[in-house]
Design the sequence.
């Protein structure tokens, strides 16, 4: 176990790194020359990380070392006799084609046609060469690649190009020098047959940059959208943060074989193809926005991550939370801000809240880990972003910019900590932000309790806020967190009231932020002329669960009138959740009536944005609803949610739904503008609702939509309606889709995923059938995600079978997968999170399977850590 409190500065640093690669598919050789610097204050022997390396030769200061002068064991190379300024030279042999873990140097695609690439974050560099593989060792890199010209026409590494040429025997070479010292996790190389899309770019500070996106020949035409997104990201970072790109060339490469979304290697970003390639025939609107977001995210890392990096991996959120926040702000500017907020908060609730409530819970800055790859989590990323958002809110737009300028200026070229971040933001604004540090150190989602009291005689409104730390035992001892609550007060007619807090006015504003920094506090608003309805936590101003005793008609009022698009949606979500609980408990439901009535009137309102309306018409998902249960029965939750939607559909009426569908379907287009995207989104939602009232009619419409769809968004929506509804047309549609997209891995992934999300008992058999499909393989992470990931994560009613067959399937696949790719296995295994809260039969079935898995010998550290935590908590 690695602990934050054990951090020590490195005893040895590396000033310069020279790497010479001799590349081949089966075997690659690498000569490394490291110029070492010793910390005079420490006297530890030279120890370098290295995993599974075949050491061919080693010399120190030009002298070959005898076997007695070094020891390589337990993934550490210890070398005697090094001193400050020594040069260590090693040669190793690597086996890229045999590397199925996709960490270090590996082959993407086939031996004949594929290409070589690397993935180093977090600790992949030690699979390439011996090195102090930790982010606080920053070095200057010179990288030379040599390879057969015919097999590897393109040779890329991070940094600026520094020469290239021919060698004997049909070979060639290329050299790259990176002027910016960097940690080893940002090293990258790519070699093979790739096509390029190029664009010239001039930064705001006048640097001419060549933007080059590389992909295999069949994919290069699908890189135009990413190129546009890259250019938008670069401009935006110049304007919003004053950050310019800092090399002469910026490479981006797409691969189908990648463990996560993408990687910000300095000057050579590498992307999972699904986060980069886009064209209307194979990419949905949601995926287009995702491509834009990931391109931006990786680009923004050039400053928040690369120029300023992390001292150690406990600080991971320093770069990830901050970069997610920067991406979210960018996407909000490029698209609709309220829709982006709804999307991000939905993700937080679907992925992070359950993580934070179960055995895998950890603080945004974890205190310990066994395998760091297990900590690239929704907590570190998404909750981390929410923490930055609170800080940005506390400082205001100008103050945050001032603080960020200070942060970049003071930490440029450094490996920093979260304290450094808070200090820079605070000092630039003359404020102390250290109270926010507590957010980084504790796991769990805090509860915010709100209660309002109106005094009609005194015209005062007292808002009592209280916070409760999550997690019961010992949690009481935790100090209160600063919780910013953005709020407004509405009249019963839906108008906003001017705010006067304790006599002081908030200017002319009718929205303000109060910060609850104690366990409980009353906020007294004066001159409140009528009993108000509070709109609290607007824009989701803090990552908490709000508990407020709203009456259904108050939520309906906010749903109808709140001008904060997020809170309007949120009011609808709260109302729907109440309705769900009433249905579950067999109680009469004012909430259900209020929810349906409010939505029916919005449905007829022509001024509301189609995309927002689509979101308003969607109740909380099954995973979110499960968070409200003490004994989870996923199939019952699915049924209740269906019933809830059916009631809504009935209230809207089949005729109105059909008419709306027809009106929306009259615009067939593949245009990506907001209005066209919004129409497609609403059209899908309307069709889904109609399917709950008129199965056959909706299936006919879906079949026609599938046939005539001009692009993937409409096609996939129709296919999903057919498959989920068990429509007779589904099997033909699946065959057609399959034939049409046969050569397109990303489209095929969606074909698998749609079927893996078939609700209820039949899903498992379908998944087992699909596992036998020629196109299925455990070796490709995207394919694994699309079938097994979609099943265990996005299909609770299918996965959580009462007979435990879903759990057994997952456990069996985890064992096979772990032997190939531990990172992907560990991520899939997190689907067992929350098993303790299942109802008793499922819980017992899950326990049996997990206990057995935990006892399995030879599990990777990745998988063992996840299974161990899930079991022992
Ligand atoms: N830094 C990358 C990104 O967020 C993700 C790298 C994930 N690495 C890993 N081993 N899980 O952009
Ligand atoms: Zn990132």
Sequence:
């Amino acid at each position: 176990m690695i602990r934050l409190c054990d951090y020590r500065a490195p005893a040895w640093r590396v000033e310069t790194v020279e790497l010479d690669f001799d590349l081949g598919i089966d075997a690659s050789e690498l000569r490394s020359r490291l110029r070492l610097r010793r910390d005079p204050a420490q006297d530890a022997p030279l120890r370098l990380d290295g995993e599974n390396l075949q050491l061919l030769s080693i010399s120190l200061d030009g002298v070959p070392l005898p076997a007695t002068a070094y020891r390589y064991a337990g993934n550490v190379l210890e070398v005697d006799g090094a001193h400050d300024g020594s040069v260590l030279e090693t040669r190793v042999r690597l086996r890229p084609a045999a590397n199925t873990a996709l960490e270090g140097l590996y082959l993407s695609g086939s031996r004949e046609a594929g290409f070589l690439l690397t993935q180093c974050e977090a600790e992949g560099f030690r699979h390439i060469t011996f090195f102090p593989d930790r982010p606080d060792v920053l070095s200057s890199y010179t990288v030379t690649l040599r390879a057969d010209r015919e097999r590897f026409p393109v040779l890329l590494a991070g940094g600026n190009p520094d020469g290239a040429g021919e060698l004997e025997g049909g070979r060639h070479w290329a050299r790259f020098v990176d002027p910016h010292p960097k940690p080893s996790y940002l090293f990258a190389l790519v070699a093979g047959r790739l096509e390029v899309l190029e664009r010239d770019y001039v930064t705001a500070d006048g640097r001419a940059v060549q933007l080059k996106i590389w992909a295999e020949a069949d994919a290069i035409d699908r890189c135009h959208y990413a190129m546009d997104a890259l250019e938008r990201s670069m401009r935006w970072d110049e304007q919003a943060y004053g950050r310019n790109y800092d090399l002469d060339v910026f490479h981006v490469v797409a691969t189908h074989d990648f463990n996560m979304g993408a990687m910000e290697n300095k000057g050579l970003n590498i992307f999972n193809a699904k986060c980069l390639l886009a064209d209307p025939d194979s990419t949905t609107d949601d995926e287009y926005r995702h491509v834009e977001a990931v391109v931006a995210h990786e680009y923004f890392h050039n400053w928040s991550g690369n120029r300023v990096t992390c001292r150690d991996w406990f600080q991971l959120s320093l770069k990830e939370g901050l970069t997610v926040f920067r991406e979210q702000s960018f996407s909000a500017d490029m698209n609709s801000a309220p829709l982006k907020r709804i999307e991000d908060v939905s993700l937080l609730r679907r992925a992070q809240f359950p993580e934070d409530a179960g055995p895998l819970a950890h603080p945004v800055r974890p205190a310990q880990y066994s395998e760091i790859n297990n900590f690239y989590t929704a907590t570190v990323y998404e909750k981390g972003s929410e923490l930055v958002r609170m800080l940005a809110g506390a400082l205001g737009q100008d103050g945050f910019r001032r603080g960020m300028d200070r942060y970049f200026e003071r930490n440029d070229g450094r490996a920093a900590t979260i304290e450094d971040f808070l200090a820079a933001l605070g000092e630039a604004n003359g404020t102390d932000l250290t109270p926010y540090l507590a957010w980084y150190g504790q796991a769990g989602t805090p509860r915010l309790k709100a209660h309002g009291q109106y005094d009609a005689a005194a015209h005062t409104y007292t808002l009592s806020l209280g916070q409760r730390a999550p997690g019961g035992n010992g949690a009481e001892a935790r100090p209160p967190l600063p919780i910013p609550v953005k709020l407004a007060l509405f009249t019963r007619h839906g108008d906003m009231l001017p705010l006067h807090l304790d006599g002081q006015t908030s200017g002319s504003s009718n929205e303000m932020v109060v910060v609850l920094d104690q366990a409980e506090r009353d906020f007294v608003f004066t001159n409140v002329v009528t009993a108000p309805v509070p709109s609290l936590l607007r824009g989701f101003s803090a990552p908490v669960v709000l508990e407020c005793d709203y009456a259904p008609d108050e939520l309906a009022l906010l749903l109808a009138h709140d001008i904060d698009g997020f809170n309007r949606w949120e009011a609808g979500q709260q109302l729907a959740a109440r309705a769900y609980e009433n249905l579950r408990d067999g109680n009469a439901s004012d909430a259900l009536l209020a929810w349906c009535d409010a939505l029916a009137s919005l449905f007829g309102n022509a001024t509301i944005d189609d995309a927002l309306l689509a979101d308003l018409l969607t109740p909380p998902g099954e995973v979110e609803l499960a968070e409200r249960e003490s004994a989870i029965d996923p199939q019952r939750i699915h049924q209740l949610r269906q019933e809830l939607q059916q009631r809504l559909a009935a209230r809207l009426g089949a005729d109105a739904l059909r008419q709306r569908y027809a009106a929306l379907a009259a615009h067939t287009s593949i245009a990506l503008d907001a209005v066209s995207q919004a129409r497609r989104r609403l059209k899908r939602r309307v069709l889904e609702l109609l399917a709950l009232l008129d199965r056959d009619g909706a299936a006919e419409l879906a079949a026609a939509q599938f046939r005539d769809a001009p692009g993937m968004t409409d096609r996939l929506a129709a296919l999903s309606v057919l498959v989920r509804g068990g429509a007779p047309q589904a099997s033909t549609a699946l065959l057609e889709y399959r034939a049409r997209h046969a050569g397109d891995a990303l489209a095929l992934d969606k074909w698998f995923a749609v079927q893996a999300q078939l609700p209820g008992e039949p899903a498992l058999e379908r998944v087992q059938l699909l596992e036998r499909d020629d196109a299925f393989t455990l070796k490709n992470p995207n394919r694994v995600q699309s079938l097994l990931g979609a099943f265990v994560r996005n299909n609770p009613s299918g996965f959580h079978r009462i007979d435990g067959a879903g759990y057994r399937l997952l456990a069996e696949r985890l064992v096979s997968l772990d032997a190939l790719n531990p990172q992907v296995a560990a991520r899939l295994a997190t689907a067992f999170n929350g098993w303790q809260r299942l109802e008793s039969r499922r819980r017992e079935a899950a326990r049996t399977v997990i206990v057995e898995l935990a006892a399995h010998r030879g599990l990777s550290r990745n998988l063992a850590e996840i299974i161990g935590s899930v079991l022992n908590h």
User: Anything to note?
Assistant: The domain at 447-542 is CATH 2.60.40.1840 (Immunoglobulin-like).
